[in-house]
Task: inverse folding
């Protein structure tokens, strides 16, 4: 269910942001047909809104020069929602106190009624967000520029630095942004590599929005693509482990950005690229099913080392002391036997 007044306000906001738009462009933004847009324009004119129609090949609709929208009034719930959004943006590394977070919160509190102002302060002091803090802040400038480009389906020109420090220039169709494992990623079609790619936002050195347009592939799951691309990224060790469980249970235990899962006749095959085999062995030990390490052999050695340490940590101190004493006695007896044998005597 929609309200015409909401559509009218959206049209005014779009014209204020873009300057001039055609009926077709407005229809795409509002997800309606061009006939509905023309009907909304008539309604705005009847309300006395200063909307101008520009004739000609490059015509469209625009607001009269010098017109400013009236101040927006928020309800208490809407104002609190804004505060929550600002705090979450800071947590995800999109903005920071230095970038104006405190100033924005102060502005909201300054115009709010006294009771709402107290609620805003309480939310800021009492709220704890269990969201992984961004490992690297990306800054609101890159974030907003890429978000708008993805929304408007405009190509972007990037200067990107990869993990090896190599710098490349790329023309990209930005499909959208993803936040996962504490980092922001851009997913899209890279014209340099002629295929889908994901880019860490903190490694983008420069962004230019281009005029070239693109179409988003149908049914494209951007989150699934980014997490799978992270899981497939080559690292020091490429591992394969057989999980004797179902795919549903495996997905519930294995983070999608960590590994690639594939069903087989025995259950699920887990493929994971890792740098530290011991850390990965600890993860595997925490899985609740039977497993079989297929590759590499070094992962089996790491698992054995971790198992030895677990047994040692789980052995009572008294038992360790008794075992040590028994071992010392056995070693002493062996030394006596060897000494007696050397002298031609029976031990």
Result:
């Amino acid at each position: 269910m929609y309200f015409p007044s909401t559509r009218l306000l959206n049209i005014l906001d779009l014209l204020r942001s873009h300057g001039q738009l055609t009926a077709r462009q407005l229809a795409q933004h509002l997800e309606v047909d061009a006939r509905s847009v023309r009907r909304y324009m008539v309604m705005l004119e009847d309300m006395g809104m200063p909307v101008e129609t520009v004739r000609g090949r490059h015509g469209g609709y625009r607001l009269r020069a010098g017109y400013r929208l009236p101040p927006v009034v928020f309800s208490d719930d809407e104002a609190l929602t804004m505060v929550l959004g600002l705090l979450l943006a800071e947590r995800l590394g999109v903005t920071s106190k230095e970038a104006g977070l405190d100033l924005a919160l102060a502005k909201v509190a300054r115009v709010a009624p006294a009771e709402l102002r107290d609620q805003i302060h309480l939310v800021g002091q009492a709220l704890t967000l269990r969201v992984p803090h961004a490992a690297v802040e990306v800054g609101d400038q890159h974030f907003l520029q890429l978000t708008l480009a993805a929304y408007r389906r405009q190509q972007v020109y990037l200067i990107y630095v990869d993990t090896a420090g190599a710098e490349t220039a790329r023309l990209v169709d930005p499909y959208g942004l993803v936040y996962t494992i504490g980092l922001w990623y851009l997913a899209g079609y890279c014209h340099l590599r002629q295929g889908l790619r994901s880019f860490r936002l903190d490694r983008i050195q420069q962004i230019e929005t281009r005029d070239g347009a693109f179409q988003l592939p149908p049914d494209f799951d951007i989150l699934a693509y980014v997490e799978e691309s992270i899981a497939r990224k080559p690292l020091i060790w490429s591992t394969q482990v057989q999980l004797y469980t179902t795919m549903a249970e495996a997905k519930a235990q294995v983070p999608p950005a960590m590994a690639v899962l594939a069903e087989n006749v025995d259950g699920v095959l887990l493929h994971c690229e890792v740098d530290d085999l011991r850390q990965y062995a600890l993860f595997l030990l925490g899985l609740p099913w039977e497993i079989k390490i297929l590759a590499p052999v070094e992962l089996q050695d790491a698992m054995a080392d971790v198992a030895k340490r677990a047994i040692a940590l789980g052995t009572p101190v008294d038992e360790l002391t008794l075992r040590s004493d028994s071992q010392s006695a056995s070693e002493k007896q062996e030394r006596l036997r060897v000494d007696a044998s050397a002298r031609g005597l029976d031990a």
Observations:
- The chain has twelve helices and twelve strands.
- Residues 140-229 form a domain with the SH3 type barrels. fold (CATH 2.30.30).
- The longest strand covers residues 167-180.
